[in-house]
Structures are given as C-alpha cells and as structure tokens.
Amino acid sequence: MSVRRALALAACGLAGGSVLLSAVVVGKQPARGGGDSEPRPGGSAVPSSAPPGLLLLPPTASCPPAAGWIERPAGSGSYWDSNWDRREPLALINLKKKNEETGEEELASRLDHCKAKATRHIFLIRHSQYHLDGRADKDRTLTPLGREQAELTGRRLASLGIKFDQIIHSSMTRATETTEIISKHLPGVKKISTDLLREGAPIEPDPPVSHWKPEAVQYYEDGARIEAAFRNFIHRADAKQEEDSYEIFVCHANVIRYIVCRALQFPPEGWLRLSLNNGSITHLVIRPNGRVALRTLGDTGFMPPDKITRT
Q: Which of left, alpha, beta for 34 (phi over 0: left; psi -120 to 50: alpha)?
C-alpha cells in the first residue's frame, strides 16, 4: 500500500459514512517477528504489510459518519446527486406511459424533449454598505460609501460585455437601493423584486458562533423561505430555453452563502464559514446536464482597497 493510499484511509466521511482503517505517520517501526499481524490493546491487530513509517489503527468512535443528507448507496462512487434540482430528464417522464399508436415507449425522444439545452449564469450580488443603526428596514439605507460600492459593482458588470436578461432583487431597502444604482449601468434590463431573497437565518451553522444566535423559530421561518428561494431560482435551464442566460440576483450575505453551499452540494450548515464583501460578485454556472461550477466567490477585486467593507 502506498503512503498516499494509506493516508487517504484516514479521512472521515467516506462514502457510506464509515472508515475501515486510519493511518497515522509515526517513526519507523522496529521489525517484529512471527505472525501476520501484531496484537494491539483491545484485541485489534495491525497488518504486517503496513509500509515502514505508518501505523495502521482501527477506526475510533471519534470519527463521525457522514451527514445523513449526503449519504449515498454503497458503490455509487460519487456524492453528486444529478437530480438535485428535480429536473433530470429521466425523472420528468412517465416510463409507464405508452404511445397510443405503436404501444411502445419512445424513451429516447421523450428524454430529448426534456433535456436542457442552455447554460444558466447566475450572478449573486451582495448589497452595498448600509446604515446599521436604522430601527426599521426603511431606515437602513445605503451609506455614501455604500453608494460608491454599488456604482463600482455596476461598472464592473457593465464592463463584462454581457447581455443580462434580468435583475431579481430582495425587497429590503439596502438591496433595492443597490439594484437601482447597478441598473443605471445596465439600461434596459428588467428588475423584479421578491420577498423570497430577504435576509434571514437559513440554517443553524456548524460550528456555532457566539456572536450571532437567533431564536430557533427564526431558523424555522427564514430557513423555509430561503430554501424556497433556492428551489425557485437555482436550477438548470428549462428545456424550452434555446440560448444561454445571464441573470443577476441582488440580495444578502446569508442568502448567497446558503445558495452557494446548496448549489455545490456542500453541507449547508457550513454557510457561515464563507465571507462576502459588500457589493461583491459571486458567479455560479449551471450546465444543461445539471453540473454546477463556481466561477467566482465574493469578488471585489474591481474595488480600491479603501472601498472594501463587510458590514
């Protein structure tokens, strides 16, 4: 067994949520005679075939199984769920339905009819800096610096030379104002406001943080709404869409971070481990086959250093 292969066995959370052996690099083990394995405390054994410098240990209770939501059947070879958006062609057709004239299933033609043909480009924009001391949402308007940030973001998007299809934005004041400034640089692009993209607590973070502990009911209420936003807006293109699309979503850090984790099929509880600057650009690509790629995460390289904030 190679050193690389032996070390790979140490990773927790392999397919099926179990680990057969763990490998720990230690000093060179002295040669020992007799038998195929060396007894260890507790009755376990270490195979004598272990390469020099490696001590193979049995699994311990400290290595937890993989999270239930990403577990897959043994032998699947991958954690990726190709039907994550419930738009996989094979899942959209009724295999029991027969063609009335021939009495045969026309599986190939039906699959082709359901297949997406275009790629969706999703640009997730975090709102600019705003007044944190506002008591109500209407009072939490953009700061002068925030307005500058939105101008810089709008210029950056315009400089890409892309024909954007639409701007969908949170109905909260800071997101709406950011959208208005950005849209001046993208004339003719329609704007749509939605409550689904409003800020909130998507899911209890893991590991927890001490400085932000909303009530449990907030996760219950906000989480359902933000998950609904993900299902409604983040998916592969409709089969009727012929050309690639480019859409902008102006919303909030918590919403964007949760969407990124869900789209990449990472544990959603890890959303708080990501950090996004005000006015930043996150670019997701959703291919016709349902594959998702993250082109940029929280890009603010187009802003001068003294204009970058994370409030």
A: left
Q: Kindly provide the b/e burial profile for residues 106-134, where b requires at least 16 CB atoms within 10 angstroms of the residue's own CB.
A: eeeebeeeebbebbbbbbbbbbbbbeeee
Rounded-to-5 percentages of helix, strand, coil across the chain = 30, 15, 50
Q: Is the pLDDT of residue 298 over 90?
A: yes
SS3 173: helix
pTM of the model: 0.74
Name the least confident of 76-80, 142-146, 221-225.
76-80
Of 91, 107, 87, give the one whose Cα is nearest residue 99: 107
Distance CA 287, CA 290 (A): 5
Percent of the chain with pLDDT over 70: 70
* pLDDT higher than threshold 60 for residue 275: yes
Per the structure block, which two tokens stand in for 244? Answer: 């690639």
Long-range Cβ pairs for the range 159-162 (8 Å, 24+):
162/121, 162/246
What is the phi-psi region of residue 154: left when phi exceeds 0, alpha when psi lies from -120 to 50, beta otherwise? Answer: alpha
In whole angstroms, give the CA distance from residue 88 to residue 116.
9
Residue 251 near residue 170, CB atoms below 8 Å: yes
> How much is the pLDDT for 286?
98
What is the three-class DSSP state of 24? Answer: strand
